[in-house]
C-alpha cells in the first residue's frame, strides 16, 4: 500500500521539482534579464534584497537549482529519500520566510519557491513519522537561520587565533566568530529549547514513577486514576469521528470497526484529560524536590565604541545600554515604546546610548539616520527621534516638515545629509557595528552583553537588574581581593 501511494504521488512530486527548478532559474536570471527584473520591480525591492543573502558565500538561487536537481535524482533512483529531502527543504524555506517577515520585504521567487516546497511537503506528509518530521524540520530551520547571511560580513582586526593564511595574510578567529555571535547565540538558544523540552518530559516521567512507587501502584494505574475524573467520550462522538474519517488526525489504526472505535475512544479520552495530567505534574513538582541544572546560554559578549553617540543618563552610570536601530525597521519601531518605558524606569541609574544601524534593504534609512544626527548637533536628537519612530513610514519630505516644527534649518539639514564626510562617518559606524557582532535590528548591548531582537519590558528589566547587581557586586569583589593581598 505504501509503495503504491509513493507511485501515485510520484508524477506530482516530479512536477513540483520541475517547477522549483524553473523558479530558481528565473531567480538567478533576474539580474541579467531586464524583463524579469522589471516584473519583480512591480512588487518592490524584495527580489533585490533576497539576492543579497548568501549560503556559504553563494547566492541562494544556485543552491535552489542544486537542491531541486538532487530531488529529481532521488525521485528517479532513491524514491524513499524524497521524504527527507522534502522536510529539509521545507525547513530552509521557513527560515527564508522568517527573514522576509523580520526585514519587511517580499521576494516573488522566494514566495513561489515556498509554495512549491509546501506542496512537496504536503505530498510527502506522513502521520506515522510526525516526530521525525518535526525534529528534522526544526533542525534544518535552525541551521538555515544560522548559515544564511546577508553577505555584509566584515573583517575585524582583532588578533586572537589564526585560522588561515592567504598569501601570508592571516584570517583571524574573531573575523569569523564576532560577526556570527548573534546568529550563533540564536542557534544555541534553539538547542537549549530542544534539550529543555525533552528534559521537562523526562522529569515528568520520573515524577510519575516515583509517585506510583510510593503509592504501591503502576504508572499506568496512576494515569488511569488521574484521567478517570474525565468521563469517556460518548458513543455518538466516537461514531462521528469514525464515520467522518476525523479519527485519522488522531492515529492510523487498522482492524474491525469495533477495534478502531476502541482506539478512537482511548485517544479522545487521553486528549480531553491531558490538562488533568499536566496539572498533576505541577502538584508532583511541589511534592517532590526537583533541581534543574540545565541553563540557557549566556548572552554573547562584545564591545563597541560609543564616544560621540547620542546618550542620556549619567556618564558614570553602573550600566550602559547601547541601542542599535533603524528608523525603517518594523521591529525597531514597535520596540521604541518599550525602550521609552525602560528609560523612564531606570532614569538616573543607567546610561542609554543610541547607535545607527540602517539596513541596506531599507531605502532611505541612511538619510533618516543622518537627519537625526544633524538634529543631535542642534540639541534636539531625542525629540527628533521620537517623531521619526512615531511616523507611519517616515521619509525626507516628512523630515523637512519635522525640522521646521522643531526650529531647525532645513537647508543646513539637507547639506548635512548630503555631506560626503558625514556619510562616510555613518558607514564607518556601520562597519564597526558589524565588527562587534551586530547583524540585525534592533540589537542592544547591556554592559557588554549583546541581546538581538526586541525584548519585552519584563525581560529588559530583568537584564538591566542583573547588570546592576553584577556592577554593584564588582567593587566588593575588587575590595575583598585587595584586602586579601
**The first-level CATH class name of the largest domain:** Alpha Beta
Strand content: 5-15%
Shape: globular
Any idea of the CATH topology of the largest domain?
Glutaredoxin
| Assigned CATH architecture of the largest domain | 3-Layer(aba) Sandwich
Relevant CATH superfamily of the largest domain: Glutaredoxin
Strand order of the largest sheet: 6-8-7-9-10
- Please tell me the total number of domains: 3
List the total number of helices.
19
Run of helices and strands: HHHEEHHHHEEEHHHHHEEHEHHHHHEEH
Question: Can you lay out the helices and strands and say which pair or pack?
Answer:
Blueprint (H helix, E strand, L loop, with lengths): L1 H28 L4 H8 L4 H6 L2 E2 L2 E2 H18 L4 H22 L4 H17 L5 H18 E2 L12 E5 L2 E4 H5 L3 H35 L3 H9 L7 H10 L12 H31 L23 E2 L6 E7 L4 H16 L4 E7 L8 H13 L3 H10 L5 H10 L4 H9 L1 H16 L7 E4 L2 E4 L4 H28 L1
Parallel strand pairs: 7-8
Antiparallel strand pairs: 1-2, 1-3, 4-5, 6-8, 7-9, 9-10
Amino acid at each position: 500500500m505504501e509503495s503504491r501511494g509513493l507511485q501515485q504521488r510520484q508524477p506530482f512530486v516530479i512536477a513540483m521539482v520541475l517547477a522549483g527548478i524553473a523558479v530558481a532559474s528565473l531567480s538567478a536570471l533576474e539580474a541579467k534579464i531586464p524583463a524579469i527584473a522589471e516584473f519583480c520591480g512591480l512588487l518592490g525591492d524584495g527580489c533585490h534584497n533576497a539576492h543579497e543573502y548568501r549560503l556559504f558565500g553563494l547566492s541562494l538561487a544556485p543552491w535552489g537549482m542544486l537542491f531541486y536537481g538532487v530531488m529529481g535524482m532521488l525521485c528517479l533512483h532513491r524514491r524513499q529519500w524524497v521524504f527527507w529531502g522534502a522536510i529539509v527543504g521545507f525547513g530552509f524555506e521557513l527560515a527564508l520566510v522568517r527573514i522576509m517577515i523580520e526585514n519587511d520585504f517580499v521576494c516573488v521567487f522566494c514566495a513561489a519557491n515556498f509554495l512549491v516546497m509546501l506542496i512537496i511537503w504536503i505530498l510527502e506528509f506522513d502521520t506515522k513519522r510526525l516526530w521525525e518530521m518535526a525534529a528534522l524540520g526544526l533542525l534544518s530551520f535552525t541551521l538555515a537561520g544560522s548559515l544564511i547571511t546577508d553577505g555584509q560580513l566584515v573583517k575585524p582586526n582583532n588578533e586572537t587565533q589564526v585560522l588561515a593564511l592567504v598569501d601570508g595574510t592571516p584570517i583571524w578567529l574573531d573575523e569569523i566568530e564576532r560577526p556570527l555571535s548573534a546568529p550563533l547565540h540564536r542557534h544555541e538558544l534553539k538547542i537549549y529549547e530542544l534539550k529543555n523540552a525533552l528534559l521537562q518530559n523526562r522529569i515528568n516521567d520520573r515524577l510519575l514513577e516515583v509517585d506510583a512507587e510510593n503509592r504501591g501502584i503502576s504508572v499506568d494505574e496512576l494515569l488511569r486514576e488521574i484521567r478517570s475524573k474525565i468521563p469517556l467520550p460518548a458513543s455518538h462522538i466516537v461514531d462521528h469521528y469514525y464515520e467522518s474519517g476525523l479519527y485519522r488526525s488522531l492515529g492510523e489504526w487498522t482492524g474491525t470497526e469495533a477495534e478502531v472505535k476502541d482506539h478512537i475512544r482511548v485517544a479522545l479520552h487521553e486528549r480531553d484529560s491531558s490538562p488533568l495530567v499536566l496539572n498533576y505534574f505541577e502538584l508532583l513538582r511541589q511534592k517532590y524536590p526537583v533541581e534543574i541544572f540545565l541553563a540557557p546560554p549566556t548572552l554573547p559578549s562584545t564591545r563597541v565604541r560609543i564616544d560621540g553617540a547620542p546618550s542620556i543618563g549619567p556618564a558614570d552610570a553602573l550600566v550602559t545600554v547601547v541601542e542599535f536601530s533603524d528608523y525603517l525597521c518594523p521591529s525597531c519601531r514597535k520596540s521604541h515604546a518599550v525602550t521609552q518605558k525602560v528609560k523612564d524606569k531606570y532614569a538616573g541609574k543607567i546610561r542609554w546610548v543610541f547607535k545607527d544601524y540602517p539596513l541596506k534593504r531599507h531605502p532611505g534609512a541612511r538619510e533618516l539616520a543622518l537627519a537625526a544626527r544633524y538634529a543631535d548637533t542642534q540639541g534636539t536628537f531625542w525629540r527628533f527621534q521620537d517623531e521619526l519612530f512615531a511616523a507611519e513610514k517616515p521619509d525626507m519630505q516628512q523630515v523637512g516638515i519635522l525640522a521646521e516644527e522643531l526650529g531647525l534649518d532645513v537647508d543646513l539639514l539637507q547639506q548635512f545629509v548630503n555631506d560626503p564626510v558625514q556619510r562616510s562617518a555613518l558607514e564607518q559606524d556601520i562597519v564597526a557595528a558589524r565588527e562587534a557582532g551586530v547583524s540585525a535590528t534592533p540589537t542592544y548591548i547591556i554592559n557588554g552583553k549583546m541581546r538581538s531582537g526586541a525584548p519585552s519590558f519584563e525581560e529588559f528589566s530583568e537584564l538591566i537588574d542583573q547588570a546592576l547587581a553584577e556592577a554593584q557586586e564588582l567593587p566588593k569583589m575588587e575590595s575583598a581581593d585587595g584586602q586579601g593581598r
